[in-house]
What we know:
Chain B: This is Peptide ABC transporter ATP-binding protein. By secondary structure, chain A is an all-alpha fold. Helix content of chain A is 72%, strand content 0%. In chain B, 32% of the residues lie in helices and 28% in strands. In chain B, the strands form two sheets. Chain B has a six-stranded mixed β-sheet, sandwiched between helices. A four-stranded antiparallel β-sheet of chain B has the order 2-1-4-5, with helices on one face.
Amino acid sequence: MRLIRNLVRDKLGITSLLFLVLVMLMGVFAPIIAPHDPLAINMPLRYASPSWEHLLGNDHLGRDVLSRILYGIRASVLWIFLALIISVCIGTVMGFIAGYYRGIVDSIIMRICDVMLSFPVYVITIAIVGILGVGLENILFAFVLMKWAWFARIIRTSVLQYIEMEYVKYARTIGLSHRSIILRHILPLTFSDIAVVASSSMSSMILQISGLSFLGLGIKAPNAEWGMMLSEAREVMFTRPELMIAPGVAIISVVIGFNFLSDSLQVALNPELRQPSKIIE
Amino acid sequence: MLKVDHVDKSYNNNGFFKSSSRKILEDVSFECSQGECLGIIGESGSGKSTLGRLLIGIERPERGSIMINGESIFKRKNRKSKISVVFQDYRSSINPFFTVEDAILEPLRAINIEENLAVIIDKLLIQVGLSPSYKHKYPHELSGGEAQRVCIARAISTEPSYILFDEAISSLDVSIQLQILDLLKELKNSYKMGYIFITHDIQAATYICDRLLIFKDGRVQETIPTKDLHLVESPYAKKLLKNLILF
């Protein structure tokens, strides 16, 4: 509750949160709010400029850009967000186990992480897509498989740093359980690290999915995805540069939204970074 | 009553090819009865902080036992509300995300006290010489002495059998040290708790402790009541006293 109250006070934070929620809702309800079928080809309207009928114009096959952007939210934001949450959760659990209990468990988990991290993400993704077939879900699976190791390593380091704190020793002295020590004393402090790596990964994952879609490994051709829209626009970059604006702005604003939100979350969580509150006394 | 019985502790240096172990504590035994203040005096590296970690039950010795009222302190349940601790570093002693109130409530919540917690907190804060308005402050808004007082309030909140002070006053400046020592004396008289005072500061120790335990190289050199301090026998204790700068 305190977190929400502090976040509301931070205008930038609450704006980015509302923006991201709005974007995600638009993605979920794309079939209802999209003005046109994103796949309907309409050759007479090739490269048409924005009009009242097609607010963001039409692409090289005369498809409505606005509708494609709205449908693209599903692949570019919602699914990536889900994959990110899953890999952050796995990474957090593994990082906490390794950092908190240390010893042999730590060594085993860290060696597994080393193995995962020694493969380049793109290569392993292409390998997994090669085995399992083309499709967004396989790329996301590959991402979860690769990224958790990265999160686990960072979170472990963060846990190691806080576990030596004297309030943790105090909590152990008075006989608190490991669970409540982790939940009350370590997790809130590591959250800022988790938020930073997660939000920056969100951006890089959106861009990587775009890259892989461009290679033809992600979303299959007619379906909308922001990265793919961008690469389609790239072909006519010098004659019709305006086609890059819509997907470009969409990617940038979502990425910026996540970055601002993670900054604000850190401030909202950490009393040391917060402005002295005026309510007290 | 706290009973330390033939405790050994060593740390392993796990190298890649060979591991060596270094003995920190060797055959340490002593007792501390309820309401007594025992000072553990030793120089840096003598193993007194390791002993401190064993005494609060967060590390285990290789050999020997530490019992409180006949029960091992290495079981979490046995430590609850019986042992507490105040550390040297007041900056990291309180979770930065906790208010003073949250910090003091932590041990009280752990033992499910039924009474009115708000009243208890106000009372504790007054007892350690802070105004009840401090309870909404965060640790970074407190000075060193204030933070240490909050730690003391937190430590006495459950009226434990004994409290360990691990260099608890060493990082404070001299005038505040004296205030804290006086506060501790006062609290001891009203609560009848045992204190174990780990310090390198022999003057502070003689000011508050009933009995001193001189510690060197992981061994107990000598145990002596504070009033007979001039009668020490071991050569190390004599040297320690002689080197003391009196002012």
